[in-house]
């Protein structure tokens, strides 16, 4: 579901490299229809399309695909050239190895490594060459390589584990959208683990599809949340977008072929609950609609299943720290 929203943490983190290089990021945000004051609220969130435009604007104004986080600049077009270098490889293994070799040609670039561990393969990123206080570029590189690989073979690569050298951050709950798998912090390296069978799969893309892919990537790869086949994503798909006809927990559990008790237990293990999932989905749909002018706030409240606009106002402020009116004004 593309209406999944982006936490303001990632916007603040993405801007750190540009700020380090003296860019007027407040003016940049206003050009994109994002009021800088919105980022002062830790609970605020933005539309994925806005985040994608922000990434593209940062790449353009810095002429740096490392967004100011690297010791050296990675000129715009480097990622595209790497994609052209790998698109004719016969297998994902060859493509990833060639991509890693391509970036290895650049001095002080973050090193990409692919190592087999029995039935598994680990893709790791060495971020020691980065100035990356929020680990934003490290997270971005892991996400981009995972989603690029998935696109190349025409199916999502199921992640078995994601590891990070840094300690668990305050925004760790957001990682479910970036790395939908077990996560380990304070590890020896930052990496993604997946089954070795994917490496032998042939590439299903070609020059024609690559041209279309590069019109929006890698910005779109970062902006598109990926819940994969996690339980929360499967529940969100079951709920759908019409909040007034949402099934109850028993019905959702039946569709997922498990008992209500088992569903509750799995959600508790993931640190969530059925009610929290519904609240987050309502929040994301509200932000999606408030970013557009086609619905009045009262109509949005009704569409989200609130009996009174005042109840919607209270809930939205609890979710984001802003009232719906304030949020819409910030987008204007």
UniProtKB/TrEMBL annotation:
InterPro entries: AraC-type_N, Homeodomain-like_sf, HTH_AraC, Tscrpt_reg_AraC-type_HTH. One of its GO terms (molecular function) is DNA binding. The keyword DNA-binding applies. Residues 229-330 form the HTH araC/xylS-type domain. Signal peptide: none annotated. Gene3D superfamilies: Homeodomain-like (1.10.10.60). Keywords: DNA-binding, Transcription, Transcription regulation. PANTHER family: HTH-TYPE TRANSCRIPTIONAL REGULATOR GADX, HTH-TYPE TRANSCRIPTIONAL REGULATOR VQSM. This is AraC-type DNA-binding protein. It comes from Pseudomonas cuatrocienegasensis.
């Amino acid at each position: 579901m593309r209406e999944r929203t982006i936490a303001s943490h990632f916007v603040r983190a993405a801007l750190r490299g540009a700020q380090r290089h003296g860019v007027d990021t407040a003016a940049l945000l206003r050009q994109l229809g994002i009021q800088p004051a919105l980022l002062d609220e830790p609970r605020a969130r933005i539309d994925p399309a806005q985040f994608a435009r922000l990434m593209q604007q940062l790449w353009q104004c810095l002429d740096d695909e490392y967004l100011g986080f690297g010791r050296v600049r990675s000129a715009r077009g480097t990622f595209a050239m790497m994609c052209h270098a790998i698109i004719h490889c016969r297998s994902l293994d060859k493509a990833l190895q060639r991509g890693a070799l391509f970036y290895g040609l650049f001095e002080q670039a973050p090193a990409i490594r692919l190592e087999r561990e029995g039935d598994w393969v680990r893709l790791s990123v060495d971020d020691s060459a980065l100035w990356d206080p929020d680990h934003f570029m490290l997270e971005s590189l892991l996400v981009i390589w995972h989603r690029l690989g998935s696109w190349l073979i025409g199916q999502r690569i199921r992640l078995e584990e994601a590891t990070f050298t840094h300690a668990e951050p305050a925004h760790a709950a957001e990682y479910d959208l970036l790395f939908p798998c077990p996560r380990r912090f304070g590890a020896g390296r930052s990496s993604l683990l997946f089954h070795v069978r994917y490496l032998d799969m042939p590439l299903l893309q070609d020059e024609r599809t690559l041209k279309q892919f590069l019109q929006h990537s890698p910005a779109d790869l970062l902006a598109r949340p990926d819940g994969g086949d996690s339980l929360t994503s499967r529940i969100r798909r079951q709920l759908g977008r019409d909040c007034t006809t949402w099934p109850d927990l028993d019905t959702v559990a039946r569709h997922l072929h498990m008992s209500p008790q088992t569903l509750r237990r799995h959600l508790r293990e993931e640190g969530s609950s059925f009610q929290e999932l519904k609240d987050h989905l309502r929040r994301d749909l509200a932000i999606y609609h408030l970013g557009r002018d086609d619905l009045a706030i009262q109509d949005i409240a009704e569409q989200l299943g609130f009996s009174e606009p005042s109840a919607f106002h209270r809930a939205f402020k609890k979710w984001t720290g802003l009232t719906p009116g304030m949020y819409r004004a910030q987008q204007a």
